[in-house]
Every structure is written in C-alpha cells, then in structure tokens.
C-alpha cells in the first residue's frame, strides 16, 4: 500500500481544502451520507460520523476501517482539512468561478474523485451561488460547511481513483529520488573559497530608482525598480528579473541588490496581473484570476522594459542595453524561457492537456493548460537582446514542449527543487534541461528544495501581502536557498555576460555547492 512521504501531508490538506468548492451546489438539503467506493465495494459513511472524526470524537466501524489505510499523520491532515476554512472571500470565490480557466480545469479533474449522485453539472450557474452561501456561513468555506449546501443526499468519493492518483504521485517522488541519487554519486564539492566569493556582497553601494512606466500599446502599467551600483562606472551588464504568480518586484530585491553590488544593472518589473497585489485583489474579490493573456503579457513586459531602458538617457549612458540576461521564477521562469527563444505553443498545450479530466501529477498544469484558450497555434515572444537566461522552478512542459525548447540556444541555467510540488522536478526542470537547444546549459538541483526555496522568508520581505506556508512546503531554509541562488546566479552571469573563465560552473561532471542547511547539485550532464 502506498505510504505518502511525511512532507506530502500538507499538500493533501491543501487539495482537500480546495476540493470543498466542488462539493457546493444548489443550496438546499444537506448531504447526509458519503459513499466511499473502494475495491469493488461501496461503504457509506454518515456526514455526522465524518464530523465526529473531524472533532476528534469516536467514529463508527465503517469509517474506522477506512482510516486504517492511512497513517496517523495523514489522518490529522485530513481532520484539519475537513474543518479548515478556505481563506478566500465570498466575492473572490464568485470572481474565480465566473472567470473559469484554471478553476474549471481543477473542478473537471477533481470530479473524477468526488461527485454527486445524482450528478450535478459543473456548468450549473447555481454552483457559484452555493459556494458563496457556504463561504458566508459562520465557519467559512470548508469541506464540512460545503456539504451543508450540497443538493443531493449522497456524495460519492471514489477511493480507487484517489489511491491511483496517490500511487502515481509516489512513483514520481521515487523517480525524483533516483535522479538525485544518480547526480549525487558523480558529484564533487565546489571550492569553498569560490562559493564564499560569489555569495558575499560585492564592493559597490547600490542605488534604487523606481520608474512608473506605462505601455501605451497595451494600456498596461509596468512599474520597474532599477538597481545600479553607485558611482560613474559605465558599460554595466544588464539583468532583468521576472517574478512569479503572487510575487512582486520586491520579492527578488535581495538578488537584485546582490548583483548590483557586484557591478550589474538590474531591472525588476512588476507583472501587474500576476503580482502579489493582484493576487490579494483576487482573494478579496476585487479582480479576476489571470487568464491566458498573462502568458503573453509576462514576456512582453520584459521586452517593453528593455525598450524603455534603452530610451532612458541616464540609464542607457551607463548600461549595455542591447544585450541582457533574464532571470525568472515560476511564472517568471516561463517568461525567461520565452524571451530566450522558446515559442509559446498552445498546440502542445492541447496535446498535453486534453482531455481536461485526465489526471496530471503536476499542479502547474492548471496554469499551463489555460494556454489552450489562446487563438493562435504558436507565439514567438523572444528578444534578440537576451543572451543568457536563468529559469528557477519554471513552467515549461505544456506551454512549450520539446520543439519549442529546442529553439533556445543561449546559455541557460535551469533551477529545480527535488520537493517542488508546484512545478515538479522531473517533468518541468529536468525535461526542460534535456530539451533545450543550447550547447551551454546547466541544471541546478536543490536537494530537498521546494518551489519557495529561492524566495526570501516572510520576515525579510517588505510589508504587504504574504502567504504563510507550512514548513514542509517551504523547505529546509529559505535563507540558505537565497545565498546559494544568488551566488550561483552571479557565477553564471560572470561567465556568460562578462566572459570570465568558468568558476563554479562545471564544464564536465557535477559540482556540489552547499551550506549546512541545503545543497545544490550543478551539472551539465543529463540525469
């Protein structure tokens, strides 16, 4: 029997919390029973019994039998997921449901596991009303409160399908462990002095200028922070940093300051429809979630910033605006690969995503699959000024595919974490690394790193919107991840933009760069 890894329990809790959405429909009679289908047998559990379990009270024999299938740790995660309210306002829920795209894909996939008998159509407009009704209840929108708005007497939970999904997820985890083991076996430690050199601040003080640019062609603001080393040094190499969904141009201020202290000009634009402020507006119901247009806007923002930098006399006088490197995280990692030469491919997305109810053990596909709604078969969003790229935890498998990634020929560094449950290592980072057309490419594998390892800890971020994640999803140490990421990125840029001799970057084999809390395996060889 499959036994989930201990760090996987928070993900289970999160998915169950989101799954409350599909369990709300036409307000009316509360569901009384949940039928669990397993091994050819239907086991019916009363909702009252489920509530007793959630409250830590004794339960009946049928539910006790089912609970023996999972560990006490996972039982506790399920108990918390049953009652934990989803931290989204009723107004926001209505925005999300009405928008469709990612949410509808999620519901379609989830319906393979949880559905009503008799069936309720996911397109029924009353679902949105019922979700809001549950969210307005005193306990907020949760699995149990959602049941109170369910239109049928019985919910069907297909445990056979659910356990199949878990087994596939476990197989992916085992495949990731095998990749890590293979790379570790051939790895040699990097020179400690070199690591310290690249991770330490540079000799320059840093000046920051905020430029509130507006793209008139798209009627879109692109506010940008520009970090420059103080003084009159000219011919500065240029770097653009692209943030991810729910992040901001302040998220990577630590990296921008580090690079600027070493003599780089760094521009950090805000992608307004995928930023932290936009995400906060979604959660309170002010705005809608980003649709497929975001896939076009992110790389277009980067290209626009390059144009504006070249047109700003005081910056162009000091900066090499006709060639630049790009660094991106998550959604921004997608943007970095796009401007580096990979065409966005809705055709590949359709091939990978349809039918939409097919299980995908990759949360990022919920964002990538919205590309199927773009009208053109392909979009070339590259910029010839981009001469090097870093993609950390980037989206790639559906939005690009092998044919698109083969068109990236500039030096590229792909960063991925072995415990990334948002953009899993094998289908996103490893596959992208293998499919890139560049002759100079490196894979940086953060052992036990997650999707959030390169982000600064909340305590070090500017005040504003923050997401408090469980420690298992954050990983061993964000502070260590920041040090390793900024040091490795600087070494990559020194070699590719400045033409300095190879240092931390191996020409053959694998190098390990590490802190006591975290290690990164850096290789040019296919895992």
Automatic annotation (TrEMBL):
What GO molecular function annotations does the UniProt record carry, in alphabetical order? 1-alkyl-2-acetylglycerophosphocholine esterase activity
Domain (DUF1400): residue spans on this chain: 30-158
Protein name listed in UniProt: Alpha/beta fold hydrolase
Quick one: a GO biological-process term for this protein?
Answer: lipid catabolic process
Pfam families with a match to the protein in the record:
DUF1400, PAF-AH_p_II
Name the keywords, alphabetized. Hydrolase, Lipid degradation, Lipid metabolism
SUPFAM superfamilies referenced in this protein's UniProt entry, alphabetically: alpha/beta-Hydrolases
The record ties this protein, via PANTHER family, to: PLATELET-ACTIVATING FACTOR ACETYLHYDROLASE
What's the source species for this entry?
A: Synechococcus elongatus PCC 11801
Top-rank lineage group of the source organism: Bacteria
